[in-house]
Amino acid sequence: MAAVDDLSFDPWDPAFVADPYPAYAELRERGRVIYFEPTDQWLVPRHADVSALLRDRRLGRTYQHRFTHEDFGRTAPPAEQEPFHTLNDHGMLDLEPPDHTRIRRLVSKAFTPRTVEGLKPYVGRLAAELVDGLVRQGGGDLLRDVAEPLPVAVIAEMLGIPESDRAPLRPWSADICGMYELNPSQETASRAVRACVEFSDYLRQLIAARRKEPGEDLMSGLIAAHDEGDRLTEQELISTAVLLLNAGHEATVNATVNGWWTLLRHPEQLAALRADHSLVPSAVEELMRFDTPLQLFERWVLDDIEIDGTVVPRGAEIAMLFGSANHDPAVFAEPERLDLARADNPHISFSAGIHYCIGAPLARIELAASMSALLERAPTLALAAEPRRKPNFVIRGLEGLDVTL
Q1: Tens digit of pLDDT for each residue in 199-247?
Q2: What are phi and psi of 321, to 5 degrees?
Q3: What is the spatial distance between Cα 95 and Cα 82, in angstroms, rounded to a whole number?
Q4: CA 47 → CA 51, 156, 282, 332, distances in Å?
Q5: Can you tell me whether residue 359 is helix, strand or coil?
Q6: Exposure on the CB side of residue 304, measured as CA atoms within 13 A
Q7: Which residues pair with residue 60 across a beta bridge?
């Protein structure tokens, strides 16, 4: 069994958070599974293992479909965190079959590929409007002015949330997602609980309104979705809506600013992209690989599992390092080199297996739309100031990205 005492893996060190990729290289060299005592987790840094474990049914996002907290050797969450866990534990991302299968099937009836594809013109128009606003002011904060409002507006529009109600969505989302960091503080938990209560109360009112007067929106579709008489419960509706909003807010926003910060530090690749806009689809994939928005994804060990001769016991927690897997030289030629034309790019930024991101097609549409609009309408975009990175490790992003034109 390898340990990390003498390695530079330190998710609370600002220097590590700024650039974790050298430490990942050390981890991959050290072994396929490494115990990390500060979080009581087993780190898995290599692509082949992460990819296989995401599909392994001996692991789960939850264990409560099979075990009590006591049986599993774990302590129940504090009672004061109940609103967070009620909201979180009824969403697809933190459920296992059969509940996961049932909810994902019902959500898929409303969140169809045709529905998502039909959003392309709206997303394109909105991206163009946001970039035009940035151009008119001669630059600004790319996060605040383009990256953030686009996915927030799109998912809110899809769900049928009126424009006048959207201001609290991003703060609620940010506060809830603080709980996904490693060893969150009591203050973080308190903010998350408050956001869960307020967000849930708002969605309960929206659901009641849509039950009385259904529309063409996704929330109305989720309410109506049924399968052999089965429907989503109100809590499942609320948890699904929050999951879709949080994923759109956090992953897509961060992928956009991380991607442009990467492009601005690689002028040759940016010049190639500006010269050939047909590179946009492969550029979106490469930028998500190169600086992964979600660095770590956790699974509970439901049955003992052996990795490279090390038995990881039932009750343990595995932390799959997506950022490391996406830089594994066993899979990616010259992984530290940004190559916007990279053809073979099996990155796992959208996860894999039954928990593969249901919003991945929408995220790709949004990322391509904002990138295309910026290339076409802001061709001289340049960095105005060195950005500050958020202190978070798991959900990787910037505080802002100031640009000039």
Answers
A1: 999 999 999 999 999 998 889 988 988 767 788 899 999 999 999 888 7
A2: -90, 90
A3: 17
A4: 6, 34, 20, 10
A5: coil
A6: 5
A7: 300
Amino acid of residue 396: R
Phi, psi of 95 (to 5 degrees): -125, 155
Task: Give CA–CA dist 258/288, Å, rounded.
Answer: 8
Distances (CA, A) of 200 to 83, 90, 207, 219, 232: 9, 12, 10, 14, 15
- Residues with Cβ within 8 Å of 361's Cβ and at least 6 positions away in sequence, in order, are 113, 116, 117
Residues 6+ apart with CB under 8 A from 208: none
- What is the number of residues in the chain? 405
Quickly list DSSP for 73-118. Answer: T-PPPPGGGHHHHHHHHTSGGG--TTHHHHHHHHHHHHS-HHHHHT
How many Å apart are CA 271 and CA 248, to the nearest integer? 28
CA angle, 150 then 240 then 116, to 5°? 45
Tell the burial category of 395 from Cβ atoms under 10 Å away from its Cβ (0-12, 13-18, 19+).
buried
Nearest CA-CA partner of 111 in 245, 203, 229, 204: 245
Q: Which domains does the chain have, with CATH numbers?
A: 62-294+349-404 (1.10.630.10)
CA distance 61 to 64: 9
Return the beta strands (E) in 207-351 as ranges: 226-227, 230-231, 296-301, 305-307, 310-312, 317-321
Q: Which two tokens stand for residue 367?
A: 């990322």
pLDDT in tens, 270-286: 999 999 999 999 999 99
Q: Which two tokens stand for residue 26?
A: 């050390």
Instruction: Report the C-alpha gap between 297 and 246 in whole angstroms.
Output: 16
Q: Is the pTM of this model over 0.90?
A: yes
Q: How far apart are CA 232 and CA 108, in angstroms?
A: 12
